[in-house]
Amino acid sequence: MTPETPKFGDGTLSPEVSTEMLGAWLDGELTADEAHMVKAALAADMALAGDLAALQRGDAALRKAFPVSEPADAALLARLGLAEPVAPTAHVQSAEVIDFAKARTARTVPAPSRSWTMPGRRLAASVAVVAALGVSISIWNHGQPSTVNDAPYTALSDSTEAPRADALVVVRDGVDAAGVVRAAGGNLVGARTSAGAWRVAAEPGRGAALLARLRADDRVLMAEPIDAGDAK
Amino acid sequence: MTNSQVAPLDPEIRQRIIAFVPRLRRFCRGLTRSQDEGDDLLQATVERALSRISQWQPGTALESWMFRIARNLQINAYRAAAVRGVVVDIEHADDVRAGDLDAELEQRSELAAVERAMAALPLEQREVLATVVLEGCSYAEAAQILEIPIGTVMSRLARARGAIRTFIERTEALETTQ
Questions:
Q1: Higher pLDDT, A122 or B66
Q2: What are phi and psi of A190, to 5 degrees?
Q3: What pLDDT, on a 0 to 100 scale, did the predictor assign at position B101?
Q4: Are B114 and A65 in contact (CB < 8 Å)?
Q5: Alpha helical stretches, state H, B52-129
Q6: Cβ-based contacts of B31 with chain A (< 8 Å)
Q7: More confident of the two residues A226 and B145
Q8: How many CB pairs lie under 8 A apart between chains A and B?
Q9: C-alpha gyration radius of chain A
Q10: Which residue has the higher pLDDT, A232 or B117?
Q11: Cα A189 from Cα A5, distance rounded (Å)
C-alpha cells in the first residue's frame, strides 16, 4: 500500500484500513481475509463507516452525472462511419411533393459556383430541392417563376437585410428545427423563409462542422452553405 | 468523414461496435472535459479502430481494445498540447486550486459538482474513475486498459475519490452557509 498524504477528504482512516483499502473493499477487490478485516473495522469505527458512506455517495453521484449514453442514433452513426450504406436519394424522395420536371423547366437560377465537399449525387439532389422549393413556392405565390438571381440561396429568404447566416436548412415536417439546429451547434436566424427553409448561423469558424452535423442528421432534408456566412 | 478508404467492415463487428458506442461515449466523456470534446474523442477512437480492425485479435475483448485506443489518443492529445506549450495536467495539478473550487461550487448541485470535479481532475485520475467506477472494470482490467500497475490504479482511485468527496462536501457546506 503506497503511503500517501491525502489532500482531499480526511484520508486517515482506521489504523489498519487505508482509503485505498476501503475503496478496494467497495470494489470487491480484497481477499476474503482483508474483506473480513474491513468489515470488522466498519462495525467498530463510526468514522470509517461515515467514510464508506461518503465514498458510496460520491460513486453514485459520479455514475448519475455520467450515465451510459442513449443508443447511437443515425446522426451519430454517420459521424462515426458506422452507418449502413443508404441510397443517396433517400432524403429527397421523402421530401414534400416536388415536381422536378416543372422545376427544371422553370428554373432560371444558375448553378452555384462554389465547390462543396459533399458527394456529387447528394449535392445535386440538394440543389434540386433548393431550386424546386424556391420555384414552386414562388409559382404558388405569384403565378410565375422568380426572376434570375445571382445568389439563389439568399433569394429564398424573405428579408433582404436579414442578419448574417451561414447555412440554409430544411427539416422534415413536424421536426423542431430550432432543436435540431441547436443540437448541431447552431442557431436559427429570423423566421422561416417562404420556401420553408430556415436560415442558420454557426459560431465563428464552426460553419463546416455545423453543416457536417446537420447533414448527418436524418431529420434534416437539406443543409447548404450560403454566401453571407463562413461555412466553407 | 474519412472512412471511404476503409475496407468493408464485417457486419457482425460493426453491430458489436454500435452496441458498444453508448459505453464508449461515456468513457470518452469521462476522459475529456465536455460532451463535445468527448464526442470528438469518440469519433477519433472509432475511426482509429475501424482503420486498424485487422490488428484486433478476435477472441480478445474488442471493448477493452477500444477503451485503450481512446485512452491513448487522449494521452497523445495532451502530449501534443504540451509540445505546443499549453499547460496540461497529465502528471501535475494533483490538487484543485481553491479559487477554482469556490467558483465551481457556485453551481450548488451535487451532479454539477461531480461533473466539475471530474473536469478539474488530472487525466490520470479521470481515467481510473472512468474505468473502475463508471465502467465497473476490475482493477486488473483497468490496469490492462490503462497500462499501469494495479497498485497505481488503487492509489489514483483513492485520490480521485477523495477529490470527488471534497467537491460534494464543500458544495453542501456552501449551501448551508448561504
A1: B66
A2: 70, -170
A3: 55
A4: yes
A5: 62-83, 98-105, 110-120, 123-128
A6: none
A7: B145
A8: 133
A9: 29
A10: B117
A11: 55
Q: Which helix (H) or strand (E) holds A22?
A: helix A19-26
pLDDT in tens, B29-42: 999 988 999 999 99
Here the cell at position A26 is 467497495
Q: How far is B38 from B136, CA to CA, in rounded Å? A: 19
Alpha carbons A60 and A185: distance in angstroms, whole number: 30
Least confident range of A116-120, A202-206, B63-67:
A116-120
What phi and psi, each to the nearest 5 degrees, are found at residue B81?
Answer: -65, -40
**ipTM value:** 0.80
Q: Which of B133, B138, B139, B153 to mutate to test the interface with A (most CBs of A within 10 A)?
A: B133
CB contact under 8 A, B26 and A79: no
Model-level pTM greater than 0.90? Answer: no
Decide if A168 contacts A190 (C-beta within 8 A): no
The alpha carbon of residue B17 is apart from the nearest alpha carbon of chain A, in Å, by: 8
Assess B10–A contact: CB distance below 8 Å, yes or no.
Answer: no
Query: Which of A197, A111, A116 lies closest to A157 in space, CA to CA?
Result: A197
Which residues in chain B touch residue A184, judged by CB atoms under 8 angstroms apart? none
Q: What are phi and psi of B134, to 5 degrees?
A: -75, -50
Interface of A with B in 149-208 (CB under 8 A): 185
What confidence score (pLDDT) does residue A194 get?
Answer: 61
**Minimal-distance CA residue of chain B relative to A27:** B138
